[in-house]
Amino acid sequence: MMKKILILFFLACCSYAGHAQNNVIDEIVWVVGDDAILRSDVEAQRLSLQVEGQKLDGDPYCVIPEQIAIQKLYLHQAKIDSIEVNENQVIQQVEQWMNWATNQIGSKEKMEEYFNKKSSQIKEERKEMIKEQQIVQQMQRKLVGEIKLTPSEVRQYYSKLPQDSLPYIPTTVEVQIVTMEPKIPFDVTDAIKARLRDYTDQVTSGKMEFSTLARLYSEDPESAKRGGELGFMGKGQLLPEFANVAFNLNDPKRVSKIVETEYGFHIIQLVEKRGDRINCRHILLKPKVSSKELTDATQRLDSLYKDLQANKFTFEDA
């Protein structure tokens, strides 16, 4: 699958000239699948390459988008293959690069002026960039091993093939949906909140450890294996409702208030904070939908379907 995607991509030619439009705040320069490559992404990488003294063979506003597009294709496949990187190694490389860049440019203030961003923003972007680079490298090793092939070589090869031998780009569609969520009775959510308050009391009184309760009762199976521990994460990696509460915790012995997210209801305990990252535990309980509510929601959708078939109203009205 990955090889087919790469082949189709390399058939495209570079036509980006957006860097001449100085009055535009940002713009999409290329699209790879469902992912957009922004002008700001290209500019950020161009500035980084200048600091590192790397020279590009050709117009940077053509070469860089192509490099980013190839990287996005690898990242897409890596996500399917569940490829992960060592978080500690990523953080270590980020710190090394930040120190090197500061010395290279002259000072922290000059670096912020050069990139037109705060130091924390530069650090977060560099972390994401290094993480993606490591994932891409792993994916490349898995796909092609030691084989080296350039985009121009691929283009030359496929330019010699008959047109009817080239693969077709699969059709994509845009759809509309109507969603009906089964109602969850208040007594169900009240019972869940009562259980979580009881867990909080047990932890506060010293009767039980939070990690023990998480292993026994949390309905997040992966974190439950680790006593509810999520590992170090940035605020943007967590659901907003969860992050707002978790990042306000300061005492590892305290338990948070009950937090509701799209996954259910949580209580959270701080493990450790490191700069703009946090490690915490949580216990998740999910409300159960009764068979009656599921049946009622299904019947409502069936009724809606019949009305649409009978042209009683449009899908937009529905």
Describe the protein's architecture and organization:
Strands 3-6-5-4 form a four-stranded antiparallel sheet. A two-stranded antiparallel sheet has the order 1-2. It has twelve helices and six strands. The radius of gyration is 26 Å and the shape is globular. The chain has helices spanning 2-10, 39-51, 60-80, 87-105, 108-115, 119-144, 151-159, 186-205, 210-217, 221-224, 240-246, 291-309; strands at residues 28-32, 35-38, 233-234, 259-261, 264-274, 277-285. Helices cover 51% and strands 11% of the residues. It has 318 residues and is an alpha+beta fold. The chain has two domains: 2-165, Porin chaperone SurA, peptide-binding domain (Triger factor/SurA peptide-binding fold); 186-285, Chitinase A, domain 3 (Roll). Helix 2 (39-51) packs across helix 3 (60-80), helix 3 packs across helix 6 (119-144) and helix 4 packs across helix 5 (108-115). A hairpin with a 2-residue loop joins strand 5 (264-274) and strand 6. The model is unreliable at 1-24 (pLDDT under 50). The two termini are 38 Å apart.
